[in-house]
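Worked Example 4.2. Consider the chain below.
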Amino acid sequence: MKRRLMAAPPALLAAGSIVTGGLLESGLPAPATQWAFVVVSLLLPALGWLLAARRPELGYGWLLLAAALALGLGMLGVGLDLHGGPSVLVAFLCSLFAVFYGLTWIYVPLLFPDGRLPSPRWRPVAWISGVAVAAHAGGAAAAGIAPSAMDRPRPAVALAAMLTSGAGQLVTWIMAVIVFCGLVLRWRRAGEGERGQYALMVAGMVATAAGAVLTTLFSYGGVQVAAVGMIGILTVVGSLPAAIAVAVVRHRLLDIRVGLRGSRLQLVFDLRPTADEVLSDLGTALEDAAEPVEQVGRLAAAVRSGLDLRWAAVTLADGTRVVSGRESGEAVLELPVRGGLGRIECGPRDAGPLTRVDRRLLEALAVPAGLAIQSAGLVTRLVNAQEAERRRIERNIHDGVQQQLVALIAGLELARATGAGADMLAGLREQARQTLDDLRELAAGIHPSALSQGGLVEAVEERCSRLPVRTTVSAPPSLRARRFADEVEGALYFTVSEAVANALKHAGAAGIEVGLAQPDGRLSATVADDGKGFDPHTTRRRGLATLADRLDALGGELTVDSEPGKGTRVNAWVPIGG
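Applying the procedure from the previous section yields the following structure tokens:
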């Protein structure tokens, strides 16, 4: 709605000026030829409003609205001139015809179809044309004002203004020819999907030139000659808007489709979403998706809907492939997702091939696609890690504590049956204590009691106090008295535990240093050892990879710095704010 409101004022002003100027020029009742001229002229502001409202970011609609404003205000100036309007205002308004011709003859074909220059090489043409159009319009305005300024003739000023206007008009014609030649060249070089659009613009330019010739040769004379001149005027005003309108309907210019909907044959403008709209909808869809495969499926659906494809597929690096729509035929476009996480495949469209706008939209989706795929992989790894941890706990319970409890129950049954003495009861009591210790150890592996009761620093110190090598733990006093969320403390505690375990098992370290800190809104942990080190690029991190995913899920990060013979340093952090 905001886009329509932004485009509406210039469109309404242009349309109102066209109608008012046309009726002032002919008077009421207006002849049929004048009404025909007004109706044809209204095509330009209507088309400009449609494109500006539907594709405001491209700028082509705003260009058409500027041309429509120049035409409408110029017509209003002609009407006011016939009714004795202020000469200064009339001269200014009539000079806007030069702006209208400059925009329609140069910039409308030059910036076709998306409001951008074909290449940087056309910048000099655009700048020279702008100066020429300004000189033509400014000179025309000055020439109209000078003769009557201050109620006395000013022939020298009028002559200079006329020369400036004439020079600007000449350069405008030359630039128009150059732009037309470039348009023909673009038409010949265009791909199959864009050739039809360029052909229409070429035809519109040819018709405009023909209309200008007819207007010049047949504007004055008898009724029949004047009728030919009117045809020329209508052709000049309506050829380019008509060509663009046909491109909108037939070739879906700027992805705008026009059709009939419903039994009432209502004319509607149906538009594929913009890149911002697709990204916004995709973000909402990914937030609502609970499963990783569902996230990838919604990504494929967003690509298919955004580009109006028969089908779209997202393939992950592990070979997982999710297709939206009914896959038929070969993919017409593939785009790798950044980071080598996978690729997006696009099937054919129902109407026409993919355009440059489609490719830009797909490239805009590459970043959120990578994030979605990375998120899906992260969730999958976390789920797998949780399942592996559940199985480990189940196995430890089954192989350890469960068997000890079974043996303890059997011993109790035997003691009751045989009337056990003090020695047997003492053994059973010791067995029960051992089982209790094993249960506590198992529970500590899930969530250490020291972490729950004393906090991160105390739990890390308690963990490192039992290590068989020299280990130091350093932490600022302010950190000892502060508690954090369970998931934050747990993530860093188990990261430290895994890092020191790796230092003992794999590094052959003789000393380990653990540092806890709270810099810049982060809670960080560092584990450094003097072991044999390794090459991080060739060695899998295994347990640390799962912990890295856990930290990543909390918005943090885990890095490993190591070289053979120089020890290892594990750095982990999570955001805590404040």
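The CA atoms of residues 139 and 160 lie 8 Å apart. Confidence is low (pLDDT under 50) at residues 147-152, 260-270. Compare this with Example 4.1 before moving on.
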